[in-house]
């Protein structure tokens, strides 16, 4: 069964100081499942890596290898959502539009959401979306 994985989980895969059992179990799940991501995920992950490089948390070579690793995973970018649905979720749960996009996709596709973000996890629970990995 596919799942939506937000950038907080992907960051935990890359940065050693963010690595945790929840993130590792979500990665292991991709051995048998696939993931569907909102289009912003593509940009968000690359920005996380770039900021990590600037702050000395990672090196350009590691970022490149990590992007190669991600390209090998069963990840598909989903079609754009209805913007009013995302805005509504963001307003109702005090989320950024970006975080609400992950929630909207999980809700729209009736699939689980994997996140390490507490506010997004609370919103998912409130919306009846299956949650994976929240701390």
What can you tell me about this protein's structure?
This protein has 135 residues and is mainly alpha-helical. The chain starts with a strand and ends with a strand. It has one domain: Rossmann fold, CATH 3.40.50.1010. The mean pLDDT is 96. Helices cover 57% and strands 10% of the residues.
Q: Give the oligomeric state of the chains in this entry, treating copies of one chain as homo and distinct chains as hetero.
A: single chain
Q: Return residue spans where pLDDT drops below 50 for at least 5 consecutive residues.
A: none
Indicate the CATH topology. Answer: Rossmann fold
User: Strand portion, in percent?
Assistant: 5-15%
In angstroms, what is the radius of gyration?
14 Å
For the record, give the distance between the C-alpha atoms at the N and C termini, rounded to a whole number.
Answer: 22 Å
Major beta sheet, specifics?
3 strands, parallel
- What is the CATH superfamily classification? 5'-nuclease
The spatial strand order of the largest sheet comes to: 1-4-5
Which H/E pattern describes the elements? EHHEHHEHHEHE
Counted beta strands = 5
| Tally of alpha and pi helices | 7
CATH first level: Alpha Beta
CATH architecture: 3-Layer(aba) Sandwich
List keywords for this structure.
single chain, two-stranded parallel sheet, mainly alpha, 5 strands, 135 residues, Rossmann fold
């Amino acid at each position: 069964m596919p799942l939506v994985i937000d950038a907080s989980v992907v960051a935990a895969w890359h940065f050693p100081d963010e690595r945790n059992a929840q993130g590792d179990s979500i990665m292991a799940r991709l051995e048998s499942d696939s993931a569907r991501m909102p289009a912003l995920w593509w940009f968000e992950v690359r920005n996380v890596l770039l900021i990590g490089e600037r702050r000395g948390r990672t090196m350009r070579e590691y970022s490149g290898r990590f992007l190669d690793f991600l390209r090998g995973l069963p990840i598909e970018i989903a079609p754009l959502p209805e913007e009013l649905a995302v805005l509504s979720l963001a307003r109702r749960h005090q989320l950024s539009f970006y975080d609400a996009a992950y929630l909207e996709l999980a809700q729209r596709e009736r699939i689980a959401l994997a996140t390490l973000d507490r506010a997004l996890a609370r919103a998912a629970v409130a919306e009846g979306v299956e949650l994976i990995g929240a701390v």
